[in-house]
Amino acid sequence: MLTAGIDVGSISAKAAIIQDNRLLGVRVILTGYNAQNAGRQVFDQVLLELGLTASGIDRIVATGYGRNSIQFADKAITEITCHAAGGIFLNPAIRSIIDIGGQDSKAIVIDKNGKVQNFSMNDKCAAGTGRFLEVMARALEVDLDAFGELSLHADNTASISSLCTVFAESEVISLISKGAKRENIIAGIHASIASRIIAMGARIGITPPVMMTGGVAKNIGVVKALEKKLNTPIIVSEYAQVNGAIGAALIASTM
Amino acid sequence: MKHIDMFKKIASNPAEYAQGWKKQTHGRVVGHFCSYTPEELITAADALPFRILGSGTTISKAGEFLQAYSCSLVRGALEDALTGRLDFLDGTVFPHTCDSIQRLSDIWRMNTNYGFHADLIMPVKLDTESAEQYMLTVIHKFRKDLEAGLGTKITDAMLEKAVRTSNQVRNLLAALYEIRKASPGKIKSSDLHTIIKASMVMDRGLLADLLGEVVTALEEQRDDTASKPKRLVLSGGLCSMPDIYDIIESSGGAVVWDDFCTGARYFEGRIDETGDLEKNIARRYMSRIVCPAKHSGIFSRGGHLVEKVKENNADGVIFIFLKFCDPHAFDYPYMKEMLQKEGIPSILFEIEEQTSSGGQLRTRCEAFMEML
Amino acid sequence: MTAMEKIKDPEKEKRKIKSDKKMRAIMAAYYMEAKTPKEITGKKIAWITSGGPVEPLHVMDVIPIYPENYGAMIGASKMGVELCEKSEQMGYSSDLCSYARADIACATVNGGPIGGLPAPDMLICCNNICGTVLKWYEVQARYFNVPLFILDTPICHTEFNPDMKRYVTAQIKEYITLLEKICGKPFDYDRMKEVGRLSVQGQKLWQEILDTTMNRPAPMTCFDAFFHLAMIVTLRGTQIAVDYYESLLQEMKDRIAQGIGMLPEEKYRLVWDNIPVWYKLRWLSDKFAAHSACLVADTYTSGWCGTMKYLDENDFLGSLAEMYTRIFLNTGTDIMADNIIKMVEKYEVDGVVFHSNRSCKPYSLGQYDIQRLIKEKVGIPTLMIEADMTDERSFSESQVETRIDAFIEMLR
What we know:
The structure holds 3 protein chains of 3 kinds. Chain A is of the alpha/beta class. Chain A has 2 domains: about 1-90 and about 240-255, ATPase, nucleotide binding domain (Nucleotidyltransferase, domain 5, 2-Layer Sandwich), CATH 3.30.420; about 95-235, ATPase, nucleotide binding domain (Nucleotidyltransferase, domain 5). Chain A has helices at about 35-50, 80-90, 130-140, 145-150, 165-175, 180-205, 220-230, 245-255; strands at about 1-10, 10-20, 20-30, 60-65, 75, 95-100, 105-110, 115-120, 210-215, 235. In chain B, helix 4 (about 70-80) packs parallel to helix 5 and helix 10 (about 245-250) packs across helix 15 (about 360-370). In chain B, helix 5 (about 100-110) links the parallel strand 3 (about 90-95) and strand 4. Chain B has a domain at about 5-150: Rossmann fold, CATH 3.40.50.11890. In chain B, the strands form 2 sheets. Chain B has a 4-stranded parallel β-sheet, sandwiched between helices. Chain C has one domain (about 15-410): Rossmann fold (3-Layer(aba) Sandwich), CATH 3.40.50. Chain C contains 19 helices and 8 strands. Chain C has helices spanning about 1-5, 10-15, 20-35, 40, 55-60, 65-75, 80-90, 100-110, 130-145, 160-185, 190-210, 220-235, 240-255, 280-290, 315-325, 335-345, 360-365, 365-375, 395-410, and strands at about 45-50, 65, 120-125, 150, 270-275, 295-300, 350-355, 380-385. The relative contact order of chain C is 0.13. At the A-B interface, helix 2 and strand 8 of A face helix 15 of B.
């Protein structure tokens, strides 16, 4: 059986194809302003890459914020359930997932079968999301992709305590003017985002082993900051960004 | 559903209804903030009890008087008051509930001029003899304040009639809840919510008549045995969240009970129609399950919620309350723990009245349903 | 160079309040006794709200503990963020009062600067200060499984009527009955008279101390008052408080006689409104001092002597209902505004600094109206600082700094 999962987020759209519980391929593109088109495009592209046709796909599940606009999908399932399914597939040992995307973040607790036991979301506030990092990267005039690597060279973690992204930005600017080292400031930014995530996770009883998914998982600094606060190693799969789509495809295969 | 269009019209624009009612009856409208307001006294004074909920408009003027860390009910209501949306009020009543309402009363008194202003300083404790004694004096004082504020006399006969009508309305609202509990497909929760919302602002006599017809019509309808939705109890304090019901229902859920003051608590408890009416009114407000801003034992709300889940064969609980609502936020952890001990799944949605958080709420709702 | 560094600045030394040391010692002894095992002291422990009637506890030899006072200490020791985060992990919203959040978390980890408060045998909650304490104490009642007594003081928006008086008075009787039950001994009404007398004396002394800053230059600032407040709150009704305040008052009088002000130069005199920003006291004090601005009075510390006028000194127990019900926080916003305007006139003040405290709705909501009334009636500039009393995450240093600087420029 061939199934597809399409995850249309606010920034990127991802597609995954599963056959008999094996991941065949994935694809990521920018969503742009038309979620439906993005869903169609990423699906077509992954099919092309794998030499498959749409008619060959038995079932499609759509997820992400744009899930309800993917007309050609058979079902729409939330990204919480999909991330859980994807995560347990990539690593059957995990019991919690932390997903930090561009515009929101989630913490999910699952059982050994990947069924969601509890979840919490932060989607009202930029602090604790990829957006927070973007704002800070601008303030520091540093390439966001360099954040992770730079923070590993910090000799001290600057303290950034504000709950609010705008306030935190002014704290960063203040630190810059006081001559604090860039590396230390970035470490502080990562510690701050980790605090926010931990608070969200602790409320729902997050337990190891923990996997991190979503675009921000590529930032080694954030991963390390989370590991420090949770006092447990964090598993990051190479498929972190497409985990939602993988989960959607898996759910499609069990429908 | 019979009469649903009328209820929808009233619920979607209560101010318009009140204005129309005034024109038609030449009566007075008394606004209030809380389900602890003894509406019976207002009705007995031939006035219309009007629960103020905030119209959901964007906050601009209210921000000059209230900091952003106050709840959207308080900010929304003040916004309406300051922008003339409540010009039809002939008086406002502020029962003592939480710190925010307490200060709103002062700010309202100092900055608006809608007829009379009455503070109803009810006891916070509802489980002692001395509190009940004091509650009685508060009810009595309220009667006097209303008489003075409206320039009228509230006779025992009028009070008796008002009490009878309010009991009738409560019986009928309770009946609607029971019908929904037995057969969730029969009544859309958004419709039931619309009815309750309208019930808090419309002519109570007319309301009793209409509700009677609605209940009769529904009882004649066949029960819906086909659908098997996930049965949910809602817990919290919210005031006028419209979309949540549709979102729950379209995600495969059905609301079977709640503990909202704008829901089941509104009609819970009846007033003894014989004897000392003021005393009986006090009794009802003392013995209803409490709002978290009141005190009656330390486990009562949690115990009540667990009971309701079991009584209604519910599959889970959704906690809903406003951001910045302190009393509800303090109770949430222990209530959730009590549910967890009984193996009852639950989730929390913290909301704000002004934001139509449709997409986010839908995702959370669907994810919770997927969990059950 | 080392020798030079060791010599203390005589100017700074002159201005230091000598009584500070004694205050620290007394408060340390108080907490030490409280943390001594009950088998040794033989005394029960009550947790009580800052506006609660503590006098009957002293009559019964119960040690009163003030979680709010500990909340201030937690803030001052900069331990607020960690504890608040813990409470949020327990499920408590970050929008709730930071004293409550810190204390709820603290109880589970024995946190804070003295390693936690001693467990209570009873909880005494008076809601004259706010409705949050009701919920906070309910949480602790569930956690500690001890009796909870609530003194419900109806709010006096515009009046205090006989019905309210009757209700509160009846509850005082219930309070005494409960104390007798928990302590297993009858209430000593004669001792109550003595404790009442000491309470009044303490309050009068505290008022006199606060009045000394009417003098130009002020011998102390509100930052000093924040520090010395703890004793009238926690040890009200004891000889210790009376003795200490007598000596503090004397020191203030001496400073006035010698012309010693807290600030080398007193260009501007200001009033502070709301609970202090506990973790930023030194920073705020230095900031205002650098501008030669002296915070000569505040609405918070005067809260513990402001309602003596309602007391009948010959019948403390019978009349304390009104004294506790009519504290300024339990009255209407317009009455609170009048309170500040009176202070502006009494202390001859040039401006008012408002702390818009996220954690305290009864104190903060309505401040915008008070600000407006001050402008209308007295015409002096006012400053609004947005922060929180114990949760440092809600304080933005650069923002506050800018506002203070701009405010001072308005005073010139």
